[in-house]
Fold:
Amino acid sequence: MNCGDVVQKCLDLGADDVVCSNVISRRKQIRFANNEITASKVWDSSTMRIFVAKDKKVVANSIRDINEMESAIERMMKYINVLEPKEEYYGIASGKYSYSELQEEGTTVQEEDVIESVFSIADQYRAAGVLYNHKSETEIATSTGLNSYDKGSAIEISVRMFADKQASGHSVSCARNLKDFKPDAACNEAREIATMALGPSAGKEGRYDILLSPLCMGNLIDHIAFQTSAFYVDSGLSFFKDKIGENVASDIVHLYDDGTRKDGLGSSRFDDEGVPTKNTPIIEGGILRTYLHNTSTAKKHGVETTANAGLVAPEPTNVVLREGDRSFEELLEELDNGLYITNNWYTRFQNYSNGDFSTIPRDGIFLVEGGEIRSPIKEIRISDNMQRLLMNITALGNESRHIHWWEAETPCFTPHVLMRDVNITRSRG
Amino acid sequence: MEDICSYALGIGQERSNYVEVKAERSFSNEIVLKNGKPETSGFDISYGLSVRVVVDGALGFSSTNNLERENVRAVVEDACSMAKAASRLIKRPISFSEEERHSNVSYRVKERESAIDISPEDKLGLLKEINGSIPGDVRLAGNLMNLNDDVTEKHYINSEGSSIHSLIPKISFFGFFNVIENGDSAQAMLEKGASKGWEAVEEWGLGDYVSEEISVLKNVLGKGKNPPKGSMDVLCGPEVTGIASHESCGHPYEADRILGREAAQAGESFVSLDMMGTRIGSDIVTLVDDPTIENSYGYYLYDDEGVKAKKRHLIREGIINELLHNRETAGQLGLKSNGSARCNSYDREPIIRMANTFVEAGDWKKDEIIEDTKRGVLINSFTEWNIDDRRYNQKYVSREAYLIEEGEIRYPLKKVSLELTTPKFWSSVDAVADDVRFFAGNCGKGEPMQGIPVFMGGPTIRLHDIDMGGSL
Structure:
């Protein structure tokens, strides 16, 4: 069955609203560690996702058993009959839309050659990481007459270099085509950070001004973006609740969700209900402008959809923190004394509604003195409040990086970010 | 299921030194209640197959959910050709440990009442009942509850003659609650999970559980004082003992981390092979991981490499005793696997995972430990937590904590932050109670990420003389 057939069958069985999409993908992965390949994988999959509403009762399913489509639809319509209405359901998108042109694909490469180059750059260092190369096609049809098709490709590498057990550097290169894919540059950057990180001393607790690398900021943006989804705002899982129109960040912060970027891993022609993707200002000049919406959450909040369906929970596409005007050297000079943090992981919120959280820097962490990177440190933790940190951003780099990796699931574009007065803690024994 | 696995195995055997095939059919339901109102619910149906091969010492893996023979053949050929291409970039050919063959094994978890047979209406009714049990005087900034159940049928075969069929139902509850009181707020993320049927939710008493935990948050916000500073004893309740067991013992004892295979994602470990047999904890600490606990959330009897599961003693009387191994790490070190290979779906490679990780019971009663404590804090449960990627520096911030003075609990404390190293944590244990309890969670590891069901647990334990100097 194609998506149109599924929509028609659901309508025949009494559905009011139906959205059906089918994603067919082929994804290759090469994992490596200790300068050798540890596993080579290829996934072929076809996933049909069906969203149905009837009398405001709403069901979302995913079917990965191609022989069970008919019976799954029948089961779904029986299932929906015994549910209760979702009061806050306000329908799916309708209207006439024009979609952007299909993007050209181009990520054909001999993956093992890329990895061989990684090992060559690593030389005496240990390299670990992952290379992905994927292609997908998406078909969508809705009961409101929307029909479209998209296809895309992506190639990305995430690489960590170890100069020593406790001296490492990490970098990524993410692209939708080969011309933007720079694996050697990522390897060289990771290697350079690892070299600088050799011989770290124990960090000290206290309050520091800090410079965050794009990789580190990418992780924080991932968490910030999650909290701009109207679903999580309404669930009490966001410190942005009731803050539309208010100052939520320093006035140099401009944050967008841009599903239209030709170079973004999260880009597509349409969202999960067939609305053409948009470039949406989330924060402009430090002011919160909107949450991320699908048609239903937008109607509840009295606004237009931002084309971020997720039919259950709106989702970010590519999150873009607009770059500033400082070179890396100028940022260091402005930092004067503080810390330069190149990566982090394990960000956890003590309280989503007020933004108390902590996260753990990893890979190169450096003391900066007099505007110069002096010495590596280790074993510290950022224990602070996300709302406060957003207000304490005082400068942004002038070069943006495309970040997507294991600890930054939402693709984003971000420069280096300077934050003032950040609470650093560490183990006390 | 059996036929297509055998077909794939045959194709793989022509092209590889080792091949294993897994077919998996799963059906899962999710019912959601947000702020007391029904949300979008749904179900997932999945049926697919994966193949893992070793060709010229390199590992290949492929999967598909199109089980037409022609496609399955192509998928097996993909795995073999990728492994072959990778073989020029390996330094140490993979050699799996020699393991006992398990032919024609079949096992299943018996359910009193299958959750699949319970109507969505009744499941939603349960969540509404839980919501109704929230005390009326509590103000919530938000709440979100999910009830999930699934049944997974797996058929595994390998080229060494093992053949294992399993059918395991799982059921789980997740609740997020954010309570507002006195101009402040606090959150709880509550989880329950079991390899069981619908009877599990009846045993859990979810209404009482949720209402008690919410009342605790209200009490801490309303009456809690700031935590004391300086050195003192810290009593960890079973939930905190459990998360510490998982984070600072289970993870660093995963042999793949120690050998560097997860270095770019989940990280490595402060534990090195030459630390085997050395002391990490006090001699009353024995910490195990046991997949064979019936109906546990991390339950299995054979792992995803066809190795029989068994209890692993990670720390025995304070000594680093055993690591978690799969066939690859065990083979590399000349050992036998202890059955720790798991994957969360047919389309993920099996990697080393915990199952049910906990501190074994000691001689003390919880009350005796409290009575024996002159000055300390009791941390019953946690909210924020994290640990570095070598599993050396960890932090747990309390959800429920109390001050203890002269052997008595005095009053609740807000946001007690325990931030210390792994050796300090386990070497400071000077009392272990007998009140072992388990808590369900989903552990994250792997690339792509594989969330996998586990239990974490243990009894109340006391850490002696801990520096609790202030942090947020």
